[in-house]
Please model this.
Amino acid sequence: MVVEHGTKNIVVIGAGYGGITAALRLDRLFRHLPDYSIHLIDKNPFHTLKTQLHEAAVHKRGVTIDIGRIIRRQRIIFHLGITTAINLREKTIHIGDQPFPFEFLVVALGSQTNFHNIAGLEQFALTLQSASDAEKIYQHISVMCARASSEPDPNVRKRMLRFVIGGGGLTGIELAGELVDHISQSLRDYQLSGGSPEIIIVEASEDILPASDKELREQVRKRLLEKGVRLLANTRVVEVSLSGVTLSNGEVLRSGTMIWTGGIRIADVARESGFSIGQSGRIVVNEYLQSVSDPSVYAIGDNALAINPATGHPVPAAAQFALQQGRLVAENIYADVLGTSQRRYVPKVWGEVVSLGRHLAAAWLALPILRKLAFVGFIASLLKAAIAEKHIILLKKESRNWISY
Model:
């Protein structure tokens, strides 16, 4: 890997919501400072719309955008590869086995599935962290529906059509809403009338969507029950095997499908690099989103243990906050270079939207005059679609690149 001497590298690891936003904003801010170059590193050549993965799992939409199309005409240098090490003392990272120096570093590696050492879970469960995961779920569901259509034994058919989702957070809930519609349509396509699908959500907390607004939880629970989804709260998955899922209440769910959405952890490289690590393995940052271990390193999104000063609680790992953090760290790095004041991170909560399948969603929005405005049904689903489109528009605006993605 060739690095020009005299160049000061600002490196962003990860092209998720926060990382791609940080890189684009850095490029805009540093255009008149030729001594600095912006580098973006990711293991994939595309940006994934992770908040729409539940739709990709039923082939409702595509969720990847080529990074080359996003950064065309930018000064951003993209490196396709895996970050294998971060050396704070020497101020280098390793892309594969190649060292690469940095002046400033933004850690935006996202997260990976946390299997919580549950027996058989990693071996037998499907996950939903990437576009390839979504495709695996789609293919698996298609196979189960096809096999069920010609299975004469009703007990075997019942197991084939029982789909267990471990985790009642946002990902699990939105996936369940999509699966109800998709599986029902698949069975109609196969003209299967002798069996109905069963979708079960298993959540260890006392209620689904434990981090969400209470009224939103109640609306989501009501709509899921109306769609026939079975909700098992305050229940843990203790073992998964080829034949089924064993729960903490002693029940065994005989099923050929377990989809795990019940936890995340940050990438191993971040945890192994000498950072001060806090709750959920996230990097401890100050009010400017700098690592407390090294002020030249910033962490955002899932990787950052950012504290909301209004509540004293950690900011949730959600796309809306990663986008805010990506813009802020770019501006704070620029301020650091110019010797001006940095800006403290204060999360802005715009609301929350939960998709529940075809033309159905539940949502609330924070408005300047009213404290909260709630939506349920088709209007909320339009809002969900608008939010997804807004991210695309902001990418184009940030890059000043209005070509079609």
